[in-house]
Amino acid sequence: MRLFLLTALTMLAFAANSVLNRMALAEDAIDAVSFGAVRLLAGAVMLAILCFALRDGLALRGPGRALGVVSLLLYIFGFSLAYDSLDAGLGALVLFGVVQITMFAGALVLRELVPPRRWLGAGLAFAGLAWLLWPGSGAEISPMHGGLMALAGFGWGLYSLNGRRGGDALQATAANFIWATPVGVVLMLVTQGTQGIADASNSGIWLAVLSGAVTSGMGYALWYSVLPKLPAAVAAVAQLTVPVIAMAGGMVLLSEALTWQFVVAAVLVLGGVVVSVQRPRR
């Protein structure tokens, strides 16, 4: 029961990132780039504290560090910019679908054996995204913001593939956040100057801090603590709940509407991932 509750809490944290980001931007409490920069900074501080508390120090070097930092930046800022327009649940679904497709493509590039069920699952997920994003499908989605969320999904997929190199996941995540933070701050200053953060309201800044320190920093640390105790298929299926939780949060907290186009796309994308992670019966 304890493991189940910790896993459920982690999924809530992941979904909360979508709701918090959308809430801040929908209320014009902060601009998207400043939100991403503050989220990175807050996450770096929290993860550094966790490393000193749990690992007695930081290890800023390691294999794949450059790729980890670049892919994290793609995810953070693609995610924030996309939520200038996308609803919380819709954005989470696009993100989740593209992550799965990216990791599938990564398996092909690395010449891993891909069984037929994974081909079928990837096809279903791709069909769901195509249905959702196709012009004239009826889904209210900006192509530019949908593309930005797809870029975020590509970044997070690369980040996940890069993380398979092994090592201490908490240390690696802390190092990636710490190295990415100066780049994020420079990006904020180049695009917004100091005016962007000066114009941000207290609520916007605190939502970004909450997203970075709690639902990202502590959420990732919690996930890494329970992940070794979960079978791979269970861990993958658990993440299927994230878009659904984000959608529910958006409906309750942001008055977002549930459309039948979203339901069809969600069934296809999440169903495709379920097919992909199922183990064949012996």
Automatic annotation (TrEMBL):
Transmembrane residue ranges: 36-54, 66-83, 89-110, 119-137, 143-161, 173-191, 203-223, 230-252, 258-277
PANTHER family per the UniProt record, alphabetical: AMINO-ACID METABOLITE EFFLUX PUMP-RELATED (PTHR32322:SF9), INNER MEMBRANE TRANSPORTER (PTHR32322)
Protein name (Swiss-Prot/TrEMBL): EamA-like transporter family protein
Main location (coarse class): membrane
Domain EamA: 5-133, 148-276
Leader sequence residues: none
The entry's keywords: Membrane, Transmembrane, Transmembrane helix
Organism: Roseovarius albus
Coiled-coil segments: none
GO CC annotations on file: membrane
